[in-house]
Specification:
Strand content: 25-35%
Helix content: 25-40%
Shape: globular
Number of helices: 2
Number of strands: 6
Distance between the termini: 31 Å
Strand order of the largest sheet: 1-2-3-4-5-6
Radius of gyration: 13 Å
Order of helices and strands: EHEEEEEH
Length: about 100
């Protein structure tokens, strides 16, 4: 069994990082359970905690705010944000 590492989170998690992690794990459980996780982490430059899925959707929360679902177009690097997982999936399906 493979283990996951949470990147860029120190042993002393600040309140907003903890809220963000809580939000994204709940969103994963509610919407994407069973999808393979590529990476979990915190981006100190953007303030986003995130779960990057193998299906190219990233579940993210900036500074503990509401969850957003991001799809990255790997051909041009453009990132598009959505309010729901279904919207992100529809966009991704049309992108491919």
């Amino acid at each position: 069994m493979e283990t996951l590492t949470i990147y860029n989170i120190s042993n002393n998690i600040c309140y907003m990082e903890a809220q963000g992690l809580s939000n994204i794990f709940k969103a994963y459980a509610d919407n994407a359970i069973g999808e393979s996780i590529f990476e979990i982490g915190f981006n100190p430059n953007s303030g986003y905690t995130y779960i990057a899925l193998d299906n190219a959707i990233t579940i993210c929360s900036m500074l503990g705010r509401d969850v957003e679902y991001m799809v990255t177009d790997f051909e041009n690097g453009e990132e598009t944000f959505f309010d729901t997982y279904d919207e992100a999936m529809n966009y991704l399906n049309n992108l491919n």
